[in-house]
Please model this.
Amino acid sequence: MMTHDKLVDFYRRLQDDKVLSIYLDGQANDPAERNVWRRRLDQKVNQVEKRLSEVGADERAAFHDALTLLRGELGRFDGFVTGKGWVGFATPAEVLYSESVPVPMPDLVAWEHGLRVAPYVRGLKQGRAVVIVLADRRHARVFEYRRGEVSELPGVLADKDVGDLTDIRVAKRGATHTGVRGQTGTDAAQRFLTVGSERMLKGLVENLIEQVNGQGLLILGGPQETVAAIVQMIPPWMAERTLEYPSLHVGMTLAEVKDAAEECASVLTNQLQAGLVAQVLDMAHSGGRGCLGAAATEKALLEGRVDTLLLSRTYIREHPDHADHCVGTAFNQGANVEELSGSAADRLNAEGAGIGARLRFVLKDENGQEK
Model:
């Protein structure tokens, strides 16, 4: 899937060009539903053709040229669309993008200036790295989950001699010491192991900061004391994007890690979204850097004040044109966009009609009152 930056770049470059955007729901797997998506696509295409019946022949020809290109891309599917959805963008001259995606998409056909981008925001989460760390006192395994696939990255191992220390044998005589009063050879080995573990974990955290990079998610598994040690080392911004899951362990298979990554990423995403909505609601109600509702949010977007635009999945479905306008405006000013689902979306629907924003600043009049 496209990254956030690539989608924004596409949107900005193609704002003045006529573009055909096609989204398809590919979740069907019942043999009786083979090629049903083609009939749904034809229905959406017919709706666009009816609207184009009143425009010039050149416009209709341009639409059909772009449609022919994307139908050619879809021709490789036999019966079912692969993945949970499919997205394609084309001008009359070229296919800009076509790909099966691992998230459900709505059935949509749009012929307009620029890309129809709002539905794609849902898929951007799949491009975000989910880093999974399974660590104990001896070594760590690091995985990355992205776009529905998991891969193991080079691990960070403690020094070889650290692991060997547990095999140190000392005489069973109480008078045997290492040279430090009251400390036996086994005590020294344990202390060395702790120092080695700390060195290992510090190196691990340095790598994690680069991998998570402000946008990804971090899942920590392993013995509770090891997980706690890692949490103490990570910076505050990273802590809020971290989920501790001590029941995970270093011996997990790749398939087990993938299942855990999907489950944990969903939990952590819901937590982050709930916190973001709560923050925006609190600031909006107190006259701070938050706004709610379509009118206030669009005003803030036009004034270039939006830091993060919030849209519920319901709002995007029920107000597709306005949602797309808001997403595009947010992209143009470098704002983040979050499509919300679950309890966070329910709360935004109830208190903000499904749309709101965290703001960069608040406009005030000469009396210090919010405009």
Notes: The CA atoms of residues 23 and 87 lie 5 Å apart. The first strand starts at residue 18 and ends at 25. The chain has 13 helices and 13 strands.
